[in-house]
Amino acid sequence: MNRRSLFVCTWMAVALSLVAVLAGCGAHSERYGLHELGVSPQQVHEIEPLELKKAEPNEVSREPNRPPEKVEWSLVESRALALENNLQLKTALISPAIAGAQLSAEEAKFEASFFANLNGNKVNQPTIGALGQISGSQSETLGGDFGVQVPLRTGGLVTFDAADSWNKSNALGLSSQEYWTSNLSVSISQPLLRNAGQRATMYSIRVAAYNRDIVDTRTKLDVITVLGALDRVYWRLYAARRELEVRQQQYELAQQQLERARHLVEAGQRAQVEIIRAEAGVADQLQAIIIAENNLRDRERELKRVVHKEGLDVQTPTIVIPTTEPDPIRYRLDPAALVQMAVQNRMELLELQLQLLQDASAIDFARNQALPLATLSYTYNIPAFGPTQSDDLDMLFDADFYGHTGRLQMVIPLGNEAAKSRVRQYIYTRRQRLATRANREDIIRQEVLNAVDQVEANWQQILAARQTSILNGRLYEAERRQFEQGLRTSTDVLIAQAQFANSQSSEIAALANYQISLVDMAVATGTLLGSDKIRWEPIIPPTDSE
Fold first, then answer.
1. Where are the alpha helices (H) located in 267-371, listed in sequence order?
2. Which one, out of 24, 206, 245, 384, has a CA that is 20 to 30 A from the CA of 459?
3. Each residue of 82-113: pLDDT tens digit?
4. DSSP state of 30
């Protein structure tokens, strides 16, 4: 092995060793994932037990005894806070900005672009002479070109290109070892079948525009969904607070019954068992208060979560008092008109309409892509050559020499089954979506009619519950008077009192359910209750920060 071969083998071994070292050093997967979040793998693979401390018998929790702050919200104020702070809406309102940016990116596809290239090479290669002798030939080249490419809406491309290069060579046949070459050219390339015409070139822009409109419809649906959910939570909170008031009132009545029983027992007019019966009634009402308070806190947390006001999250003990009272008015409902309104306003149907337009455009584009590829191109160029750069540029500007080049290129697929299959795929997708639209329309009609029936049923429940509440109130008063006369026991009074409380609760639930059914009917028609229109605007987040 000679010295040159040993040198080459040594450098190859060094290079291979360096590659192996670099490859081994880069494979450290533990640097990523959980490590970036500061989380150890043990936190993922281990489940910690929940340790609870046993409460002392007389221990009183400090949190319930601390008087919480109160806030009073009307339904309109709750809606405004939700529109401003709700996390689901904040997420949904960014989507239109994303879709708008995607559309802008597609619309920029026809922007002109500047290009520039710089290249240089130096070659030393052997040549053979006429007598068989071998000699060396050296050449050097330094050149560059720049230009502008302009995409056309017809699918073509116009290119303006200016090139200039310096060359040095000692090859045989050259009168000078140094020379300059330049070339100025204008070319246009235009597809004739596939990708030809604005219908094909604008396809991606149409798809992006359809996607933007689809995102807008989904965003409006999200706004309606969130505000509809807010209205339902608001009325459930109203019912929970009124339910607590009823249970507190019944607790006071049970206390009064206990005092009456004690007074009569002390007077010797009743047996001792009446006190025990009355105390049991007080205990029952206290349990009902505890359940009502827990339900009220659940409803308050639910409303806080939907509103998501800063400084008033679900962990705060703040009491939320709804100030909007239900307005139990019977409305004259026209099911046919409401169904027609739903068909016009429901965003799900509008989204399907946009998707059908998208499918039609996809079918048209797929058919275009199934055509043969035929491209017609033309180039006009002005070449120049000179021993100096000045001579080269003079020849270029004088345009003493010029050339025309035309070309027609054809590519015809044999069979073309892939393109035909894509056309069939888009056609099947469109027909499937047409069936989906018809099914969706039937579902929407059913939802509206069910909502109308529910509104009427809840109105009847209000009337029935109100009448029942009045009668049970009279019954309770009658049982209480008969107890004082010695004709009834405390058990009879407490049963009448419980029936009265339950009927009051049913009336409150009927009022809340009636308001909720109106909300459901409005959402089913693609609208919201209220006299003011709600207009949403997309959120455009800043791009200069993380």
1. 273-307, 335-345, 347-369
2. 245
3. 988 888 888 899 999 999 999 999 999 999 99
4. G
CB 389 within 8 A of CB 166: yes
Contact 250, 285 (CB under 8 A): yes
Q: Are 79 and 227 in contact (CB under 8 A)?
A: yes
Instruction: Give residue 34's Cα distance to chain centre.
Output: 26
Q: What is the pLDDT of residue 317?
A: 87
Judged against a pLDDT cut of 60, whether residue 61 lies above it is answered with: no
Whether 88-102+205-356+428-524 and 138-191+373-411 share one fold: the answer is: no
- Identify whether the C-beta of residue 260 lies closer than 8 Å to the C-beta of residue 484: yes
Angle between helices 490-524 and 273-307 (to 10 degrees): 20
List, in sequence order, every residue forming a beta bridge with 121; answer none if it has no partner.
141
If one compares 22 and 513, the residue with the highest pLDDT of the two is: 513
Q: What is the distance between the alpha carbons of residues 24 and 29, in angstroms, rounded to a whole number? A: 12
Domain 88-102+205-356+428-524 has CATH 1.20.1600.10: yes
Amino acid at 218: R
pTM, entire model: 0.79
Residue 294 C-alpha from the chain's centroid: 34
Question: What whole-number distance in Å separates Cα of residue 322 and Cα of residue 240?
Answer: 11
CATH of domain 138-191+373-411: 2.20.200
What is the tens place of the pLDDT at every residue in 282-329?
A: 888 888 899 999 999 999 999 999 998 888 888 888 899 999 998 888
Q: Two tokens at 288?
A: 């009902």
Q: What do you get for the CA distance between the two ends of the chain, in Å?
A: 61
- Contact 520/454 with Cβ under 8 angstroms? yes
Phi, psi at 121, each rounded to 5° = -150, 160
Query: Who's near 121: CB < 8 A, 6+ residues apart?
Result: 140, 141
Per-residue b/e over 221-245, b at no fewer than 16 CB within 10 Å?
Answer: bbbbebbbbbbbbbbbbbbbbbbbe
Q: What is the pLDDT, as a whole number, of residue 362? A: 94
pLDDT, tens digit, 9 for 90 and up, residues 23-49: 555 545 556 666 666 666 666 656 666
What gap in Å lies between CA 69 and CA 191, rounded to an integer? 73
Whole-number mean pLDDT of the chain? 85
Residue with tokens 């639209």: 437
- Residue ranges of domains in the chain: 88-102+205-356+428-524, 138-191+373-411
**With left for phi above 0 and alpha for psi between -120 and 50, is residue 529 left, alpha or beta?**
beta
Which pLDDT does position 540 carry in this prediction? Answer: 83
The answer to whether residue 421 scores a pLDDT higher than 90 is yes
Mean pLDDT of 60-85: 73
Please, what is the Cα angle at 331 between 328 and 334, to 5 degrees?
155
The total of other beta-carbon atoms located within 10 Å of residue 456's CB is: 15
